[in-house]
Every structure is written in structure tokens, then in C-alpha cells.
Amino acid sequence: MAAVPLIAVRDLEKTYAMDGPPVHALCGVTLAIQRGEFVAVVGPSGSGKSTLMHILGCLDRPTSGTYHLDARDVSRLSDDDLSAIRNRQIGFVFQGFNLLARTSALENVELPLLYAHRNRIAPAERRVRALRALGAVGLADRASHFPNQLSGGQQQRVAIARALLNDPAILLADEPTGNLDSRTSIEIMEIFQRLNAQRGITIVLITHEPQVAAYASRIIQIIDGRLVTDLANASHRAAAAELAGGGHG
Amino acid sequence: MAFRSSLAIAVRALGRNRLQTSLTIVGMTIGVAAVLAMIAIGTGAEAAIGDQIRAAGMNLIVVTAGNYKVKSTDDFGGGAVEPSAALGLPDPLWRRALSLVEPTLVAHPEDDPMEKHDHPTARQRLGDSEAGLGSAATLTSADADAIRRIRGVQYVAEGLHQNVHVAADAKRWFTRLHGTDLQLPLIRRAWTFPNGRFFSAREQSRAEQVVVLGAVAAERLFGGENPAGRSVSIWKQPFRVVGVVTTASWMVAPAPGDDQFDAVYIPFTTVHRLLNLTKLNDITITAASTGEVSRIMNDVTMLLRARHRITDETPDDFTVTTQARQALAKGGLRPDVARAVVGNVSGLDKVTLEQLGKTLDRATRTMTALLAGIAAVSLLVGGIGIMNIMLLSVTERTREIGVRRAVGARARDVRSQFVLEAMTLSVTGGVAGVCLGLVVASGLSRYLHWSTTISPGAVVVSVSVAAAVGIFFGWYPARQAARLDPIQSLRYE
Ligand SMILES: Nc1ncnc2c1ncn2[C@@H]1O[C@H](COP(=O)(O)OP(=O)(O)O)[C@@H](O)[C@H]1O
Ligand SMILES: [Mg+2]
User: What is the pLDDT of residue B437?
Assistant: First the structure.
């Protein structure tokens, strides 16, 4: 194993105490993910998967415990610093795609570059990079389409292109196939496996479907906010081969 | 975040809710247009007053019989009038001169020449001066005709002034009588005739016994009735009323005691015929162009010196002044109003038109501020409209805000985006409001004949105020947007 993990969380706890009794969404999660891993996080609904992803994605802070991202303690960073980390090091893919309505695919993909404060990019360069990212997910010809003119799978690919735009180290996907049929799901998994293999992007895939988790090379199971199993998945499914061979029904 | 892309985001976001966006912009437009139109009206009124004051003061030349010295050196004259002691004139003479200069001071029933008095009456005294006892009554209608021929002279009106009793049926009113020329209404540009007309050239040349009543005199003698065609008696002679004169200027309110409207006008030829006179008290002249006033004053002086055979060593037997006291005293401005507006100035005769103009300017500026203040209320309403649509927008776009935060937007990026959207609304409305305001202002001038002025400064101020309204009313919704928790926003349905 490499010396410093990309993601290292220790005794992570998250308690929601809005109204009513406090909810313990995470109860002491300790976890290390190396650079270049493709990890699936599985567990029943309400087990705390999304909560974990939000903390890993610097969208949220843990109630207690530590989080080191690339050896940097992020639990005490300011909101602006966390925004910068999200912008440059993390890409999100959501179940509901979360594209901006009435905004072209290209402009949706460009979005992270608008907030790249540390290195401003000229509009022309933004376009080039957004088109390249769209090309990587096979949607170069759909650049000017609006989300409502795209299928679910296409929308999710636009979202992936957007997540990739700043060349993040980590791609966090929360139920990315939850709204898609199984064929389209395999297409998305193919993209993930390709990005992981070719670019070495670390992927954390959250899903409640075991057959989707089977594409990852490591599977972590969470139940009631606790990490119960953490297994290597050496014989993971290969999406590209499945697509080429006619695939599943 | 680059301004241009932020603006593009703002415009796109606003484009999604066309109707709401348009209505909000309309609200702003009305507010800004109202403010601009009010400023236009206010400054227009200021400018109009300035013009009137200047016009009244600057193209008017008055030649008065006799000589006196004006102490004040300012262009508008109006300083204290002093008898010309340097000329060594005998006492009764300078008093005579003064009484001619300030005829309003001589207000006594004895001036009725038809009354029996145990001392010399006005007529007798005027006769005295004509007999050579004074140099005051030096001007003649031949002088006036000669002045008419000077290049650049616009109108000329002979003037003879008396205090008289005017009687109509049972009513009597002691007032001012002006024997004058039919061109006087052209000089007094604000005059209007609610009943009848001024006397005609024919009536003047035949020295007919016709009279035009000032509004106050008409009211006193005839109440609400139309006096035109009725008969009054002056100097126990019957006179036919041909018209009533009042003013169209809002600056002037006819009131008892004023020289213009508590007065009656008859042809100077009639005064000459009935009182057997040949001289004039004064001659009022207007220059066609204000720039020529000095030249015409000079020409008049030269002309009259020649006509009166005055050598270089002897002083003039007449006085040429511009504007000043005559214009003010005869301007019909209520003395109490004039005194009120100039506050601590003790004597009305010391108030120059300059001072009066400044005071009126101040008053109009206050009015402008008041009008603009009232209009600002509609701007406030426009601002609240912006706040409303922005709050709505924040709610509707909660998910979008979450997405932006997820891809790296800082709280302040979100805030500036919403402020920029609010400003886009307000500035668009502001620019449209400026256009509408210009249209409204020009419409007011064209169809209602209100004077309006729109300066580039007012336009700049209007647009800036609109932008400021956008920032002010967009701030709170933008802060709400920036404070949203990214996760809550992403989960928001
Ligand atoms: N904002 C919140 N306020 C209160 N409870 C929450 C909040 N977010 C999540 N939870 C609770 O925390 C637990 C874990 O939720 P989540 O991480 O979304 O689960 P999963 O993604 O595995 O379905 C659930 O019981 C959920 O109800
Ligand atoms: Mg979840």
C-alpha cells in the first residue's frame, strides 16, 4: 500500500439534531482510500452513504472525527477553502443529474471553470475544455442541447463531463444509476471504469444495488452508519466487455 | 468569477421567468421615469422662472421724466433712490421727481382733479410743472414716437399715472389710473383678458373714454359680473369698460394695492384730452433682443438729449433705467408675498429682481426635491418588486444554488450573482425609465406647455439610483441564497 492515502477518515461521526431526537447518520467510520482506487459504498437506504459522501466531498463537516484529504486536514478549513477543494479536487455525480435547466450541455459542463478562482480561464479556453470533456463521454455532438432534449443516460454523461472538467483527483458518485435502466447503467459504469483505468481517477461510487457495486474493485458495506465489511473485488465486472458482447437484458 | 459570465448567468436566469422579470422591470421603469419626469418639471420650472425674471428685467427699459441718481451700481438697479443733491435742485423739485419715480407713494384722494380742494390738486400741480415750475414733466408723446423709430426697439408705451376714484353704480373704488399705449399688453407678456379686450388703436387715436379694468378693480366694482360693456365714471366722466385684465403667471397673484391689477387703463390720449395735458410721466420700452439693451439705452439717451436740446454741460432732464423697481412694482407681485419670500428685507422697493429670482429659485428647488421625493416612493415600490422576485428566484433555484456550490462556487459567488441579477433588473428598468421619462417630459412640454428640463446629470443620477436600488433590494435575497446549506439545496425538491 502507498504511504499516504488520498482519503483518510477516522472515527467519523455525524449527528443530525434538527428537530426531534438526534439522528446518528454516521457512528465512527474509519476508512482509507488510496489514489486510483474504484470503491463502491453499498448499504440499505438510510444507512448513511450519502452523508459519508457529502463529508468526503467537503460539502459537509463531520460532527466529530478527522478527515485528511491528500494528507491535509480539511475538518477545520473555511467555507471558501472547502469550495476551492470541491472546485479543483472533487467531481460530483448525482442520482438526479442536477444539470441547470434551460442551459446547454456545453454551458453546464463549463460551470466549474466559472468558479476556478485560482487560475482564471478565458471563455474560449473554457469552451475547448468543455467540448473535450463532452467528447470523453461521447456527447461532442450534443453540446448545444438543453437537458430536456437529452435522455437520462445522456444527461448523466453531461454531469460526468462536468465533474471531470477541472481534472479532479476524486469522482464522487451518489447513486448515479438510480434513475437509469440497466443498459444505460452499464454505459455509465463503462465510463467510470475507463476514467479509473486510463486517468487514474479515484472513484467512490455509492449505490444500494449490488450488481452496480460489482463494477468496483473494492466494496464497502455500511449499515446504520457503521462500516460492516470492506472487501477487495478482484473479479469485478467489466462494463466494456459486457457492452461489446451484447450485454445484459 | 468574471463579470461577463456572471452577467450572462444573470440574464439567462432572468430569461427563465419572462413575465415576472418583465413586470418587475416595468415597476422599476415607472419609478425611474417618475423621478426623472419630476426632476424635469422642477428644474424646468426653475429655468422658466429664471427666464421670466431675466426677460422681465433685461429687455425692459424705462425712461422717466426728471432726473435722479441710483445709488446701487448693480445691473438690476433697484437700489435706494436718492434725490440728486449734487444737482442742487430745490427741495420741491426733487420731491416732485421722487413722486414721479415712485408714484405708488402718492396715494391720496386729493388726486381726483374733479374734487374741490383747498390746496393744489394733482392736476394743478402737473399743470404747474408744465408751466415751467419743474423739470419733471419733460417727456412727450412725440419723444415716444421718436423712440419707436430707434432700431431694435420692440414695443413702446407712453405712461401717465394718477390715483383716481372709479365709480360704478353705487360702488366706488380708489385705485390707480394708467394712461398708456395700446402696446402695453405686448410688453406685459403675462397679461390675459378674461373679459373683453384692451382698447383699440381707433379708440386711442380718437381719445375715447374707454377703460380696461384690472382684475382687482373689476372685482371691487362689479363683483363677479362681467364688466365689459358697462359704464364707470372717472373724474365724473363716463367711461365704457372694454375689458378686464389679469395675469396668466402663477408667480403673480392680483391683490388690492398692486400697481397692475388694482388699476384701470385708459388711452394716454384720453388722459391728455380730459386733463388738458401734453406731457408723459414715463415711457416704457422693450428691446427686441436683450443683447441690445445697452445700445438702445444709449440711443434713447442721445435722442432725448438732442430732442430736449441738452448740451454736454447740463444734466439730462430724464432718466433711463433698465428693469428694476418699475418691473417689480408693476409686476403685480403681491407685496406681502414678495416681503415674505425675501424675509428680512425691510422695503419692497429694495428687493431686486435678482434677489427675488434667487428666492424663487430656492423655492422651486424645494419643490423639485419634494416632487422627486414623492416620485422616489414609486422607486421604493419598484425596489420592493425586485426584492420580491429575487426572493422567489432564490426559492425556485435552490437546487441550482446547491449545484453551483458543489462545483466550487463560494458563498460570496452566489451572493454576487444574485445581486448582479437584481442590478440587471433595476438598471434595465432604469434605462427604460429614462426613456419613458424623456417621453413623458417632452409630452408635458408639448401638450400641457409645462417647461421641463432634463440634464445629462439627471439621467446619470436616475440610472445610478436605479442601480443602487437593485443593490439595496437585491442584497437581502442574495444573502439568503449565499447562506443556503449546499446539501439542503441539493436535496431540495
Ligand atoms: N439533514 C438531515 N437532517 C436530519 N436527518 C438527516 C439529514 N440527512 C440525513 N439524515 C438522516 O441520516 C440518515 C442517513 O441518511 P443518508 O446518508 O441520506 O442515507 P443513505 O444515503 O444511505 O440513504 C437517515 O436516517 C436520514 O434520515
Ligand atoms: Mg442517499
Answer: 92
